[in-house]
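Model: Ready when you are.
Researcher: Fold this.
Model:
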Amino acid sequence: MSGFSSYPQQGYEALIQKMASSLQQLPRQEARVAQYILLNQKGLALENGKTLARKIGVSEVTVGRLLRRLGCDGTKGFKEMLRQQYAENSSLSQTPPDIPHRYQKIVRAEVSALNTIFRQTGTEQWAQAARILSEAQRVFVTGFQSVRGIAEDFVRRLSLARGAVTYFSAHDNMLAEWTDSPDRMAVKSCLVLVDVVPYARESAEIVTLAKEQGRQCIVITDEFCHWAQGLADAVIHAPSRTGLFLESTTGIALALGLLVDAVAQARPQASQQRLHTWKTQSRRLKIF
């Protein structure tokens, strides 16, 4: 950045830290931009203000306004920060030559998404999610639209690691599962919600209702979701814009798989016994 700039001299890492700490106080559109930047840092070197705005679904002015709010000289200053930060090419910029040209950029984005998920496993948000899933007496899972199938698969997999896991559909059962008497509702339970853009209208309302009933909440979502951070007890973000025709669900699938593993690791003997029982019963019915 120019020494004559009216913006204070700061490095990329300092800007990212400031962005993360101020996320909850940002205006909604700027929060979307900040969330995307925080979760897609490995792929930012190839971006500019216009491409960022297009991917996030906001105006280029919004991107620049956020950066200036955080003490950066707009998109120009941010680009210079990125140039200095990634002066040495990372291994992610290299893709095997036998991958078709159409997928060269996509494979880098997909690998970056996986790395983003693995990096989150070392955060307090992740530890909180794993703790809730391991300690809850009952787990409800729900998902909407294109990710309902992934949510249902998560129920089946999580049920092999622990008991009392139920797929919860507000549309099918009209919340009948949550009409228990006060003594039954006192059972320690949690809700896992899986949702991506365009978010289901009832997502935030279901999380709010669950919290009002004393249930803990985990939200597994994409990089554009900023509303969940202020409602849920733990939020896992999975990058989804990798260049495919439809948004990628690779990151979400990995996050859910890692959470199943975390629950199994919390009670290894019990989980192994459940797996053994499942295999025995499956063989008896000749399912496999």
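Researcher: Now this one.
Model:
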Amino acid sequence: MRKKSRVAAYAVCVRDGQLLLARSPAADGLGSEWVLPGGGMEHGEDPLDTVVRELDEETGYRVEVTGLLGIDSFHHTFRHGGLRGPVDHHGVRVVYEGRVVGGDLRNEVNGSTDLAAWHDLDAVPALTRVRLVDVALKLWRERPVDGRATVPPTTGP
């Protein structure tokens, strides 16, 4: 079985009781999920630089990182990993707190997301979203000393 690791960085940006999220269309075109803005590190890139770059790409905003909230580790076997068979995937996600300091909200073009929007914090539980949104909000609210937040498993990463 093929093994794959991915390190990514994301930001929780809350302003006036709203959370900034990006929408990721489903690969099958039959739905979408809300995700935390952010994404994969490029080789040699620092995680802080990654989150600043990704927020700009996905939302149009320039952000200032105001804190490190924690790390989320995700391990899953994808049985249908493409032509090369199953994939044993390990994702490490660095979660920061960020503050918008410039730019204008816009949607990403030709990227992994198709819409960026602010959502009332109270409305987030009703959204179709990936597990990382819940993990990140728990880190943001509770600020655990060890930087880990445990939330019930869902179907998505």
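Researcher: Key takeaway?
Model: The mean pLDDT is 91.
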